[in-house]
């Protein structure tokens, strides 16, 4: 049973850590909660003990004969601090050991994940940025906070990511995700574009965005700075990724091309509509006795081919996706040659296959190399297989 230490520092977002704890325990992890003294003013020890099924560790002077300030960290498979306040990040970066949590951070020899939460001004302060850089340079994973509503009426970056998103990142870390994307910027597109017919109707597809989100999530766990261009996706933002929301193919193109200018790798996992209506009705189209009028279509730009040809950065790696219903490999090989990308992930789609499912199977075609078969499994597994091929090419 994986041993997880959940550190909780003194921020209003401490209540969200209760959901993170529940996700760990219900998935079979043994969790030791270490709240700081001030964190107990937000959520009391009885709550942590009831949810974890074990006493909360709160003080270096409790059970001294067991040497908790050393034992807890040495026995852990993962330490995650959520929320991580500016104060906790500062103490961790400077190697202080003035409570049980910071002692545990010094003695842990396992991966450490920090999920910061604080007001925007504190997150953007040069001292906090320097502390984050220091922690990352030592191998810690510091998830960038989400942007949204903070305490009171304030809004901005500094919000604790959704607990389920933090949990998924932690699972990737526990699986042993390598840190081979450290210092890299990757762009991932996800979801399916919608091309408006009128204010109510659109031309779209069945893509849920699950595979693109898995790619973003695993890239964060492997150390990358991630820009996720999400088209019509109803999923919580992956922890640590910057999310740009779009609707149409033209909007997606603008976002991807802009982000690609500073990217080391671009993975086009979104299902982009091939066509769009030439004109959009300003009001809802009504039924008439004459029947529906034909919808004239125009071809959308080929974003994958465009960025593959442009390559704004030397050594940039471009990955495409091909969803096929028949002649899967033949169509995939033709698309790889036509698009000019480095890798093409080809999968068969249909009822119960790929779109909207938690699992996926694919063949990854490699320009100038042998294909790589990825058997059916969780979408995170396919995502890791993609990054395993991208990282050595960077």
Automatic annotation (TrEMBL):
The protein's name: Coenzyme A biosynthesis bifunctional protein CoaBC
BP term (GO), one: coenzyme A biosynthetic process
UniProt keywords, alphabetically: Decarboxylase, Flavoprotein, FMN, Ligase, Lyase, Magnesium, Metal-binding, Multifunctional enzyme
Cofactor requirements of the protein: FMN; Mg(2+)
Lineage of the species this protein comes from: Bacteria, Bacillati, Actinomycetota, Actinomycetes, Streptosporangiales
Catalytic reactions on record: N-[(R)-4-phosphopantothenoyl]-L-cysteine + H(+) = (R)-4'-phosphopantetheine + CO2; (R)-4'-phosphopantothenate + L-cysteine + CTP = N-[(R)-4-phosphopantothenoyl]-L-cysteine + CMP + diphosphate + H(+)
Residues binding CTP: 274, 284, 301-304, 321, 335, 339
Keyword Endoplasmic reticulum carried by entry: no
Family designation: In the N-terminal section; belongs to the HFCD (homo-oligomeric flavin containing Cys decarboxylase) superfamily. In the C-terminal section; belongs to the PPC synthetase family.
Segments forming domain DNA/pantothenate metabolism flavoprotein C-terminal: 181-391
InterPro entries for the chain: CoaB-like_sf, CoaBC, DNA/pantothenate-metab_flavo_C, Flavin_trans-like, Flavoprotein
Record's function text: Catalyzes two sequential steps in the biosynthesis of coenzyme A. In the first step cysteine is conjugated to 4'-phosphopantothenate to form 4-phosphopantothenoylcysteine. In the second step the latter compound is decarboxylated to form 4'-phosphopantotheine. Catalyzes two steps in the biosynthesis of coenzyme A. In the first step cysteine is conjugated to 4'-phosphopantothenate to form 4-phosphopantothenoylcysteine, in the latter compound is decarboxylated to form 4'-phosphopantotheine.
Organism name: Bailinhaonella thermotolerans
Ranges where the Flavoprotein domain occurs: 3-172
Ranges where the record places region Phosphopantothenate--cysteine ligase: 186-394
One GO CC annotation: phosphopantothenoylcysteine decarboxylase complex
């Amino acid at each position: 049973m994986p041993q997880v230490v959940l550190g909780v520092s003194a921020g209003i977002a401490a209540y969200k850590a209760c959901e993170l704890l529940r996700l760990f325990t219900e998935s079979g992890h043994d969790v030791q909660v270490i709240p700081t003294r001030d964190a107990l003013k937000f959520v009391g020890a009885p709550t942590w003990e009831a949810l974890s099924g074990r006493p909360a560790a709160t003080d270096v002077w409790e059970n001294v004969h067991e040497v908790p300030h050393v034992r807890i960290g040495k026995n852990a498979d993962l330490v995650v601090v959520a929320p991580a306040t500016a104060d906790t990040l500062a103490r961790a970066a400077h190697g202080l050991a003035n409570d049980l949590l910071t002692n545990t951070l010094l003695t842990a020899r396992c991966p450490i994940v920090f999920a910061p939460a604080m007001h925007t001004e504190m997150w953007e302060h040069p001292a906090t940025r320097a502390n984050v850089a220091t922690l990352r340079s030592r191998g810690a994973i510091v998830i960038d906070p989400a942007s949204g509503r903070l305490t009171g009426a304030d809004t901005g970056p500094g919000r604790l990511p959704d607990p389920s998103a933090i949990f998924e990142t932690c699972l990737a870390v526990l699986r042993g995700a390598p840190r081979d994307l450290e210092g890299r910027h990757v762009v991932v597109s996800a979801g399916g574009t919608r091309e408006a017919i009128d204010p109510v109707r659109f031309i779209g597809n069945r893509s849920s965005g699950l595979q693109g989100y898995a790619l973003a999530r695993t890239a964060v766990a492997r150390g990358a700075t991630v820009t996720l261009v999400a088209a019509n996706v109803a999923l919580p933002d992956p922890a640590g990724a910057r999310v740009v929301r779009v609707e149409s193919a033209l909007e997606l193109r603008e976002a991807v091309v802009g982000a690609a200018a500073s990217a080391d790798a671009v993975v086009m996992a979104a299902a982009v509509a091939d066509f769009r209506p030439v004109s959009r009705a300003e009001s809802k189209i009504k039924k008439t006795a004459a029947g529906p009028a034909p919808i004239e279509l125009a071809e959308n730009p080929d974003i994958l081919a465009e960025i593959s040809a442009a390559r704004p950065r030397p050594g940039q790696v471009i990955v495409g996706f091909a969803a096929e219903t028949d002649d899967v490999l033949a169509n995939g090989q033709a698309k790889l040659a036509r698009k000019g990308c480095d890798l093409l992930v080809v999968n068969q789609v249909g009822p119960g296959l790929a779109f909207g499912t938690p699992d996926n199977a694919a063949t990854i075609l490699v320009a100038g190399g042998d294909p790589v078969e990825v058997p059916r499994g969780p979408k995170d597994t396919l995502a890791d297989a993609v990054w395993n091929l991208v990282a050595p090419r960077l």
